[in-house]
Amino acid sequence: MSSTTTLPKAIGANEEHEEQELAHLLEEHTYTKPTNCDICKGLLVGLWSQGLQCKLCGLNVHRGEGVGGHDDCRAEALFKGCPGCHNDVCVPTTKEPVRVRDVIEQMRQMANEKPNFFREIRDQMDKDINSQIKGMIVSASAEEHKTKSLLRARNSIVPFIQKVDSVESYGIWFAYSLLCLGHLAIGALVACIAWIGFVLVLFPRHGLFTVSSFKLAHVHNMTVLYSFHCSLVIIVLLLRRLISLMNRKCNLLDQFLREVFKLEAEVDLGVSVNGVAKRAQLWIRRITVSSSVTCIAAMLLWQASQPSSSSFQPSSSV
């Protein structure tokens, strides 16, 4: 089994190019002056590596939880697009020189204001060191568990992707045939449920083997099918909008998986985020066409099933 699945050439051959948003490139950064998080507006605290900074736009965020109800500032930043460099000038990588005399003066001033200032610095340093040690100990066992979980997920995802891609080798009409069979199966299931509802609700009043009951059942089933297919078209259109948004934010999702879950989608899962978005966009267009055709057919059947005004009138006795 190959390590990755490749996107068929038929997919995306006639795709309209959509501009994808740029993702933040966050890395640990040590600040030489008090700096606030651009997400929660809280102070970035610590002796070193107080937070993360974007290499492109200079966004500053907490590594995790912030203030004011922000559970994960890094995750929120990764879901926002990066504006990139402003005026072709990126964030400078060189640190501004700081005079030792100014630093000593600031330290003395803070020590006078807070008698326990140096003790708090020592305690904070111990906390930072212990945090790094605990992280190194936990990372070993977590990495092993992550590898096993990714292997199980990949063994489930890759065969499914390969089956979906194999449909492309049979042509587009074969794909539409499968979708039509799916619509027929769903329609048959809905019709059975509608018939059961008719038996439970209308049978005590109209009977089961009368002309009126058969006409009512026919109209009832056609109405339910038409309503169901109209609802299905609305859901498909909403999914199409969501997938279009996913296609534009592929870079953001890929960077989010890489930064938060330490996950390389194409290597660890066998398919990239962009590959999933392209496949989803192709199939949602096909589902939109098949759903619309099925909805029109259901509308025509529903219109044809409407009874005349005298269909349920009892015949007058001579």
TrEMBL record:
Keywords: Kinase, Membrane, Metal-binding, Transferase, Transmembrane, Transmembrane helix, Zinc. One of its GO terms (biological process) is intracellular signal transduction. The chain crosses the membrane at residues 173-203, 223-239, 287-305. It comes from the Eukaryota. GO terms for molecular function: protein serine/threonine kinase activity; zinc ion binding. PROSITE patterns: ZF_DAG_PE_2 (PS50081). GO terms for cellular component: cytosol; membrane. Residues 23-73 form the Phorbol-ester/DAG-type domain. The keyword Transmembrane helix applies. InterPro entries: C1-like_sf, PKC_DAG/PE. This is Protein kinase D2. It comes from Seminavis robusta. The lineage of its organism: Eukaryota, Sar, Stramenopiles, Ochrophyta, Bacillariophyta.
